Amino acid sequence: MQVGAPRPDAAEIRERQTTLFPATSEERLLVEATQVLQDLGFTIEESAPRFGVLAGSKDRDAVETPQVVGQVALMVAFAVLGAQYNPVWDTDQVIRATLSTRQVSTQETSLRVSFERIVTNNRGLSRVEELNAPEFSSGFFEKVRAGLAQRT
pLDDT, tens digit, for every residue of 94-128? Predict the structure, then answer.
């Protein structure tokens, strides 16, 4: 892997994150996408309708009991062996959504959505994880389509 080089599956991910909406303006698409994000608990942080860009986030608890139990068990096991072990587990996460629209033709507008999460552990260290599973974008697009259909 080279620094700055795209991932080998970048085109596949981009295709999965993008869909076309026939006979829909960028403005209408951004309004509906904003409403869907808000319905999903996101707070809109940035909005530039003129450029077809929207970003939002939501905070969530990231504590998973099995992870904490496993880390505490390791700490106890190391203590029994006379060694020290400092347990680490996830505590908080911020899920971010970024959207962009593009007028493809007079009849079609594309919408791209990407999700990521920033996870912080009990030591204050953070890591970023892309949320690339197909169900993230397809589920979002279904909700946008449903909203557009209701307002037609």
Answer: 999 999 999 888 888 999 999 999 999 989 999 99
Residues 6+ apart with CB under 8 A from 64: 89, 90
Amino acid at position 1, single letter? M
Q: What is the DSSP letter of 7?
A: P
Q: Give the alpha-carbon dihedral of 132, 59, 46, 39, to 10 degrees.
A: 80
Separation between Cα atoms, residue 12 and residue 15, nearest integer Å: 5
pLDDT by residue (tens digit) across 78-88?
Answer: 788 888 888 88
pTM of the model: 0.79
Residue 99, C-beta contacts closer than 8 angstroms, at least 6 positions apart: 30, 33, 37, 53, 54, 55, 111, 112, 113
Tokens representing residue 29 in the block: 């698409």
For tokens 């996408």, name the residue: 33
Copy the structure tokens of residue 51. Answer: 């450029």
